Amino acid sequence: MRRPARPRPGAVTVGAVYGAALLLSLAGLGATLWYGIEQPGNALAFGALVALGELARWGAPRDMGAPPVLEEPRGSEPAPLAAAGALAYALLGASAGTATTHGVLQIVAVVVAAGLAGIVPHLARGLDPGLDQLARRVLTVGFAALCFQPLYNAGAVVAHLGEGPLYALFLLLLLVLTALCDAVLAALVLRARTGFPYGPLLRDELRALLGIGSAVCATGAVMALGVAAAGLWALPVLAVPLLLTQVSFRRYAAVRTVNRQTIASLARATEIAGCTPPGHARRVAALSAAVGRELGLSGAELTVLEHAALMHDIGQLSLVDPVAGGATALLPAEEQRRIALLGGEVVRRTGVPEAVAVVVERQADPYREQPPAARVVRAVNAYDDLAGGEGAGAALAALERLRLGTARDYHPDVVECLARVLARGGAAGVTSAVPG
Fold it and tell me: How do residues 198-224 score in pLDDT, each as one tens digit?
């Protein structure tokens, strides 16, 4: 009798997050429909702010066919205005000096309804609906509201802290705790979806808190305090700075996208010239990124690795006689170094950061003399050259050859990380021939 297939751990994790968010959403919507909406003016104003924030967020096409080689880790909040508005509503204790009467479940219901209303246009345009972010927002807003509303409604917050600086500090502390919870959830979901190590993903999320995350927390606290003192008229005034910040981040992201596209185009030059097989650079870049994350690289280190992996063969453009099949891993060591040095010079002339050129020119050195990114590029390039997409036998033979070369050419940790990545199915856009 055949045993039923066990669900993947990643699917269980994502399902648990979605399930918890769904249960909390149903409880909030059900309670609000049953008991009615308290202070509908506040609910409408904050709901409109959250919906507007969702409409203004940046998104990406759901599936454009090409593997995302240089996609940035999703460690930043794509809808900062929606996040700040939702957190401000969760920490709202008074409006224009009058105590509020909404509870935790109504806060959740408003955030869910506004979030769903805001993602409908994105769905219509074929963009990512951002369900992961919405599920995390429901859970984190519920956490913030549960920590604040019962204490405030019981009078404990004002009695012990007053309504001065200590009260504002208390709000900021709650927002920081909420942001940390969101970072933990985001890293868990990314770990489940990608299989990358949890530590580097969590570091990416925590690093993002120092950027747009800090602006979200500060704006949420200021909105709650501003509405408490001046009423709902404070919302549009306080929303403007965060909107401008969001526009700046979008422009910065657009510049980064253009740079990545330029590098990807330069990498294709070797394929167009017939120096390397089609798709070789993208395969090496995607697999290098996965191996780099397996090794614990993140942030700027991972970006340098991806750029260098894309451009690792660009030195072949300087050769009079092309390498047969573009397989530099089969050349003598001195010839590999010469091509790597030529590649470093070409990369420097393109205006790419110096760190990328260093990795390209040092990819053929003995691994004890290489930076970590160069070790990854050398091993992954050799694997792709040796495997050649010829099936499981060639892939296993390529891995075995890399293991035999760990005395000098390939770092043992890199080779083992590569084997683990391939056993899990490879990276985005890379089909593994190694059985799991």
Answer: 888 888 888 878 877 888 888 899 999
